[in-house]
Write the structure tokens for this entry.
Amino acid sequence: MKNLKFESPETLLEAYTLLEGNEGKFCLIAGGTDLIIEMRQKKLRPETETLINIGLLNELNYIREDNEFIFIGAGTTHAVLSGSTIVKKYARFLADAAASIGSPQTRNRGTIGGNIITAAQCADTIPPLLVLDAELKLVSSERERIVPIGDFFTAPKKTAIKADEILVEIQFKKPDTSGKAVFNKLIRRKAVAKARINFSAFAVQDSDGKITDIRIAPGSVTPIHMRFPEAEDMLVGKVPDTALVKEAAGKVSETMVKVTGRRWSTPFKEPVLKTMAERGLLEILEVKND
Amino acid sequence: MIEKDGKYLMTFRVNGKDYEQLVSVEERLLDVLRDRLGLIGTKEGCGIGECGACTVLMDGEKVNSCMVLALQAEGSEILTIEGVEGSGGELHPIQEAFIEKGAVQCGFCTPGMVISSYKLLSDNKDPSEDDIKEAISGNFCRCTGYTQIVEAVHLAANKMKK
């Protein structure tokens, strides 16, 4: 095997130039918490010749806000994301998801951009970002495009990013302050544990208790990260009672089985996801008394 | 970065001393510390960023050195367990406390535990039990001597206040 080459561009512009005409020979590395394991397991794509280290680019490390949006540089580490005053103020559940990843050591290296691009089924930041309707800014030397995160995942661990592009920013509209959001994670131990199942949701109710906006995204349960619109449709426009919440939670579980088919893990995941969905929804919804 | 025979010249600072090393892309910070610099206090446990035996401080933040390519540490400042002791080789109060509380059993996790404790006590002079548990949550002790380790960090905090 040929020796891998290494480039450490000092600016994003330099990185875009390196990637021009890339047909898979270049591979980006940011925190490296997934990629280094893949390298050691000889799972890098065989055509990879050069690693491009974007981990030192300060241009990718920021969290900003304007009146309407929050902008997160793709190189922001989970540690910074989970401690960010802006993120905690507007999307606490995203900060909670980042804080739940791996260990403090991993959170100091791993980045939000890496979490999205690796697209592991158990990626913790993705369900909240789906719920936030986040948009991804992908840039190359020739073009810049914005892709809704809901359209980004194309197959298991595959995304819509092109070989010459870099994910530079994640942006989302500040959620309605009257809304409530949740991120819950089922794990085998408190730290350094991959999610068995994640559940994230966001809901807004009007003064009569009617649900005007509801977004539901479980994690680790489908091959591709996605929202669960069938369960959302059952709830939107309704004033929920516990029976309706139970029914919607059942629909979440049913949707999972519809997507994945009955697998070896289904007897476990089907009832557990239903329970997690019910608990999560009850955390964020004002339910009318029966 | 200067390339020579498929390797790259990197410079970094470890325990207050400057080093220049010619390393290949695949080498991790852990490999360079142990195999090239002979700093074998930093241990390799799982090799996949879970156990924390290889914890070092990189520019003041704790990282698993098995999860950092050496070339990613270019220009950075590293602290390993060898850099924790005093200039005359005397033990750091954290190391003393680990011995006094019997917080060392097989000892394999100890360097990582000490580095995580060192970082905690640099940021927080008076940590609660929960602070300590959070600080060592990325360090596994398979002898399961956590109670003594938490006690040792408390003791170290008291020693360092004096």
User: Anything to note?
Assistant: The mean pLDDT of chain B is 96. The radius of gyration of chain B is 16 Å.
